[in-house]
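Run log, item B.
One chain of 175 residues. Sequence copied directly from the ordering sheet:
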Amino acid sequence: MTSRAKAVFFDRDGVINLTVFRKGAHRAPADLTEFAYVEGAKATLEALKARGYVLLVCTNQPDVSRGWQDKARVIEFHEKIERELPVSRVYACYHDEQHECVCRKPKPGMLVQGSEEFAIDLAQSWMIGDRWKDIDAGKAAGCRTVYLRHPHDSEPAHEPDHEIQRLEQLLDIIM
């Protein structure tokens, strides 16, 4: 029997890249001029990759279905991430809650898809997120979870396995 890979799944906005305060809330950047990585993202991801983890991003992008963002623009962000960071793939759900799809977090669809495409052992993997939907998706997929706390966040519905204040702290937990 061949061993399966271990992975770290990351939420995108607020975890990989900074959010922008707009329309009364922290939101995804509108375009590449607003796109910036979270402090320590590149170094943290490079260290995890060097330890043999497959790195995948799983992000809800409902602003596309809401008509607030162009799908081509979102794809630009994902191409930038895949080009500049050691991320194997970015998975995105463009649906909103009323669509009841299998991919939108807190459902585990994107994590399951990544596990199938990259032969990942979900029980040996991690989901890192800054919202309760990320933690719930990780739990539903059978991953260990890490909650990246921001001052504007609400509490996760399920208790994460770990909580951090800065992305670099992830290395102390996983390694």
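Observations after the first pass:
- The first strand starts at residue 7 and ends at 10.
- Strands lie at 7-10, 20-22, 25-27, 54-60, 89-93, 126-129, 144-148, 162-164.
Flagged for discussion on Thursday.
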